[in-house]
Automatic annotation (TrEMBL):
CDD domains: PRTases_typeI (cd06223)
The protein's role, per its UniProt record: Converts guanine to guanosine monophosphate, and hypoxanthine to inosine monophosphate. Transfers the 5-phosphoribosyl group from 5-phosphoribosylpyrophosphate onto the purine. Plays a central role in the generation of purine nucleotides through the purine salvage pathway.
Biological pathway: Purine metabolism; IMP biosynthesis via salvage pathway; IMP from hypoxanthine: step 1/1
Compartments, record wording: Cytoplasm
Protein name in UniProt: Hypoxanthine phosphoribosyltransferase
Originating species: Salmo trutta (Brown trout)
Transmembrane segments: none
Length: 212
């Protein structure tokens, strides 16, 4: 677990500003905040191009998706304000949980959110932080299909290169990332590190320090 063969190593921590309380916990920065924002701006453009013309219900997968959701919607709003074509946008939230410490558990729990039945007949954009095995998304998509939405698209900021993948790929993705446990930009380890702007590799010491 402590090493893998992926040669994408990101950036040294010292090149960027990280909160003092997390300095000891992180190995490297994989995606700096500014780069996340630039990529998100382009994803917004691609999504509006494909889904535009119809009302979109953006469904945020809490909690890890909240930063990406908020920033993506800001970019879609900016397009709506500045283009000839615009698309009405409403929001909805769902809470799923599949992780304990740094291990994906076999069961995906839905622990909150609105009734999925409100999505019947709608164009739904699911906004997720990271796809690893793909199990979370596959579970959510099968739950959602029971409610007969008109269209469902999935955007995930990150997709992990991992042998544990089921082969599931989202419709849109921000970046492919190496098979490390990543934190920051709302991605957490047992609720810590959501207050970190950059996406970083969590080190082995920190996994013990913040273990439940
Ligand atoms: P999957 O079901 O294995 O695809 O896992 C997806 C979910 O696990 C995501 O929604 C995340 O909440 C969580 N997850 C997977 N990998 C990481 C990671 O590296 N850091 C933080 N959360 C992760
Ligand atoms: Mg998530």
């Amino acid at each position: 677990l402590a090493s893998n063969n992926d040669d994408e190593k990101g950036y040294e921590l010292d090149l960027f500003c990280v909160p003092k309380h997390y300095e000891e916990d992180l190995d490297r920065v994989i995606i700096p905040h500014g780069l996340i924002m630039d990529r998100t701006e382009r994803l917004a453009r691609d999504i509006v191009r494909d889904m535009g013309g119809h009302h979109i219900v953006a469904l945020c997968v809490l909690k890890g998706g909240y930063k990406f959701f908020a920033d993506l919607l800001d970019y879609i709003k900016a397009l709506n304000q500045n283009c000839d074509k615009s698309v009405p946008l409403t929001v909805d939230f769902i809470r799923l949980k599949s992780y304990c410490n740094d291990q994906s558990t076999n069961r995906v729990k839905v622990i909150g959110g609105d009734e999925l039945s409100t999505l019947t007949g709608k164009n739904v954009l699911i906004v997720e932080d990271i796809v690893e095995t793909g199990r979370t998304m596959e579970t959510l998509l099968s739950l959602l299909s029971e409610c007969n939405p008109k269209m469902v698209k999935v955007v995930s900021l990150l997709v992990k290169r991992t042998p544990r993948s089921s082969g599931y790929r989202p419709d849109y993705m921000g970046f492919e990332v190496p098979d490390w446990f990543l934190v920051g930009y709302a991605l957490d380890y047992n609720e810590y590190f959501r207050d970190l702007s950059h996406i970083c590799i969590l080190n082995e010491k920190a996994k013990v320090k913040y273990k439940l």
